[in-house]
Amino acid sequence: MHSKIAPLEDVVQLLDEQRRQSLVIVHCHGVFDLLHIGHIRYLQAARQLGDLLIVTVTADSFVNKGPHRPAFEQRLRAEALAALDCVDHVCINHYPTAMEALRQLRPNVYVKGAEFRDHKTPELLREEAEAAALGVRVEFIDEFRSSSSSLINNYLSPFSEEADQYLLKFRQQRTAADMLGRLAQAGDLRVLVVGEGILDEYVTCSTMGQSPKSPNVVGRFLSQERYLGGALAIANHLAGFCRDVRLIGLLGQQQTEEEWIRAQLRSDVEPRFVLKAGAPTIVKRQYREVYFANTLFELNYLSEAPLADAEADLLDEWLRDEVAQADLVVVADYGHTMLSGRSIRTICERAKYLAASTPANAANLGYHTISQYPRADYVCLAEHDLRLDRRSRSGELASLLQQAAQLLHAGKSAVTTGSKGCLCYGPEAGFAQAPSLATRVVDRFGAAEAFLAVTSLCAAVGLPLEELAFLGNVAGAEAVSVMGKSRFLEEGVFRRHVESLLR
């Protein structure tokens, strides 16, 4: 069995001799997460199309069915395939698609399951084009069908009992195709994001112990990473679903980092930046201990001075120009003095559909809540933001959310509750609750921006609250599975995550 498993490059060399013997080489590619009877019959039928069957297996890092997948790591999946008599060689494919494997293997036949014949993904369309260019015949095999995702969901679920019961009920009421079809309508929206540009920095260190000269902990520097944060991150998330995303943001005139920021923004984001004189671009730098990944200390670089009159006038001019033209305005107001009362009034008076969020942080605590906004069509808050606004430490969360929604005349509202998930409210629909769907938490600080981006789109295109809550938690699960904002939401990956949960 183990002799069948080899690097792609080694198998390519073996094929040279077999080509000289005019053997017909067949190639199958997939994740094969939990090998089942459908896979076995599919592979047996593929082997009947030639003399040699090579199977390439998607490496763990490229399995895009959600952070909870794969259920089995790549070596185990390769061993399961190699145990089949019909399989001659197995390679772990360290590329995002089968394109490179096709180029190197140059098989006579490339085989996919019949389910892909009528529902071709963008990846398969590219693979078909590559196969045609290489002279490779593409075949679709219609054998007994079963689903790894369905089997894993029912028998090997990584979720809590509460989440499993929720997903079981949700699958009975919703289909991924219908829900994602409605979300896809957001692709045509003209979206405007307004808010402070923030850079999130992570300095990783190991603790060496206490200094002998003073009572402070000493650390050893290991690495430093930087990611887009704040409104910059939200714009990038939205650009994963929408073709027209505008951004009005605030940067500092000193240590502006504008060139680097523009290079990190997706091509579908069109930014305009107000540069604040005498201030740096906001940087929030965390010093993190490497072993437990705990934040030891955070240092903020920012100015709390209000905008100069000329800067505020320029911002208001841009807002009057852009807000009324947008189908959806997403305001991420971090309370770092970008948006004055005048700017807020301009947004609220001119926005066709307004999604608003006012995250509390150490710099704005007690000075900055959602009540500053006279209206919003969709309100998105964390639980501590909502409790701060309502001045209630222990009041019933549903009642507090209803109060905030009524105050802003919001048709939809959501409050995130960390590991407990989220609670949503609408005056007509009532309440909808969804548990967290995160199974791997690397860094929880990226969840808020991803949740706001996806749920704003859901609210704008009229998805029901139950679907808004579910899709928001899927986005949150994607975000917390990576460090910082090292990866932004993409429609294709997001779609496959949703599909894997609902099978």
Topology:
Blueprint: H1 8-20, E1 25-30, H2 37-47, E2 52-58, H3 74-82, E3 89-93, H4 99-105, E4 109-113, H5 122-134, E5 137-141, H6 148-155, H7 161-173, H8 176-183, E6 190-210, E7 217-230, H9 231-239, E8 244-254, H10 258-264, E9 269-280, E10 282-289, E11 295-301, H11 309-322, E12 328-332, H12 341-350, E13 354-357, E14 378-382, H13 383-390, H14 397-408, E15 412-416, E16 422-426, E17 430-434, H15 447-460, H16 465-480, H17 491-501
Parallel strand pairs: 1-2, 1-4, 2-3, 4-5, 6-8, 6-10, 6-12, 8-9, 12-13, 13-14, 14-15
Antiparallel strand pairs: 6-7, 10-11, 15-16, 16-17
Helix pairs in contact: 9-15, 11-12, 13-14, 15-16
Overall outline: globular
Give the count of helical stretches: 17
Q: Average pLDDT, to the nearest integer?
A: 92
Characterize the largest beta sheet: strand count, sense, and whether it forms a barrel: 12 strands, mixed
- The count of β-strands is 17
Question: Could you describe the 3D structure shown?
Answer:
- The protein is an alpha/beta fold.
- Helix content is 36%, strand content 26%.
- The protein is built from 17 helices and 17 strands.
- It has helices at 8-20, 37-47, 74-82, 99-105, 122-134, 148-155, 161-173, 176-183, 231-239, 258-264, 309-322, 341-350, 383-390, 397-408, 447-460, 465-480, 491-501; strands at residues 25-30, 52-58, 89-93, 109-113, 137-141, 190-210, 217-230, 244-254, 269-280, 282-289, 295-301, 328-332, 354-357, 378-382, 412-416, 422-426, 430-434.
- The strands form 2 sheets. Strands 6, 7, 8, 9, 10, 11, 12, 13, 14, 15, 16 and 17 form a 12-stranded mixed sheet that branches. A 5-stranded parallel sheet has the order 3-2-1-4-5, sandwiched between helices.
- Strand 10 and strand 11 form a beta hairpin.
- The chain starts with 7 loop residues before the first helix and ends with a helix.
- The model has no long low-confidence stretch (mean pLDDT 92).
